Amino acid sequence: MAYNTLAGGTCLDDIELLRNDETYMDALGAQRIPDPTTAGDFTRRFYESDIGALMDSINTVRQKMWKKGMSRSQRAEAILDVDGTVALTTGECKQGMELSDNGIWAYHPLLISLANT
User: Fold this and answer.
1) 33 Cβ partners below 8 Å, 6+ apart?
2) Is residue 106 part of a domain?
3) Which residues of 93-114 are buried (b: 16+ CB within 10 A; e: fewer)?
């Protein structure tokens, strides 16, 4: 689903187009990916606590990697990669949606990652 978004998909239905694109599948190294119905069912099974547990697991491993996998000089400086974008949505009534500068309903996610890793 992350690759769907990175490839320009705006909804789960866009997975259907991509899963039939040979070049896309080769780029992922995948023989097949789930159809949109299966992907949607999968995402609806998660609760906020599940996402929090996943983030905690990633952060625990990241801290171990910093301590054991990076030298002291590599840990001396953190380089943050920060990016924001306007994400189009069709849900005018959803919480957090606003009209963007060009009059489309959207939200503005801020993405921050540690570029050193």
Assistant:
1) 15, 18, 19, 25
2) yes
3) eeeeeeeeeeeeebbeeeeeee
Count H helices and E strands in the chain, helices first.
6, 5
In total, how many domains does the chain have? 1
pLDDT tens for the chain, 117 residues: list them.
Answer: 788 888 888 888 899 999 988 999 999 899 988 889 998 888 888 888 998 999 899 889 888 887 887 788 877 888 888 887 777 777 666 666 777 777 777 777 778 887 776
What DSSP line would sit under 54-99, residue for residue?
Answer: HHHHHHHHHHHHHHHHS-HHHHT---EEEEE--EE-S-TTSTT-EE
Whole-model pTM above 0.90? no
Question: Would 46 be classed as within a structural domain?
Answer: no
